[in-house]
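Re: Re: ligand-bound prediction request (bumping)

Still looking for help on this. To restate: I need the protein modeled with 5-O-phosphono-beta-D-ribofuranosylamine bound, output as structure tokens. Inputs repeated here so nobody has to scroll up.
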Amino acid sequence: MKRLGILLSGRGSNYEAIADSVDAGRINAEIAVVISNNPMAKGLQRASERGHRAICIPSKAMEREAYDRLVVAELRAARVDLICLAGFMRLLSAYFVNEYPQRILNIHPSLLPSFPGLEAQLQALEHGVKHTGCTVHFVDEWLDAGPIIVQSTVPVLDSDSVGTLSARILEQEHHIYTEAIGLVLSENFRIEGRRVLRIK
Ligand code: GRF
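Reply:
Sorry for the wait, this slipped through. Here it is.
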């Protein structure tokens, strides 16, 4: 059985969606560890309530690579095969990324490469796009930048606020994270340049 490591900093709804998919057999893997850099993260509390190994490694005042070495040590100890960033609000160092080549995924609430970084839903509203969405991509050391695995589009309605738009995007996030994890675990893909292509 493949082993997932989840990294989060906050609410943890994507973690919960992944955990639900694991429990329902939609993802053929187990959650080996959930790690948060934020001691107050609701997702960390939910992870321990759900019986997952939930660890806080506070990142405050820590240098990036020194911090990442602590996290990688825990992921190694938990014998993790695939790492899912689920609202983990930190850039990973080159050290971290090189320890797990093509084995770190992230979810972002826009159609990348549009609107990377913080408040992607607000950025989309303010730009006036008519469609936005969400993206699961491989992680490299740059912000929201690695090869794209799955995307889903969401229309922007005239009546939308950041809240309503974010909620509709979040619903899609929960679906595509499961789909992307399934594809990566199946190994039925190859990467050509930036393109992630299905081979079955
Ligand atoms: C999501 O919108 C995700 O796309 C972004 O951070 C948010 C995390 O939400 N990377 P949650 O903690 O999974 O509920």
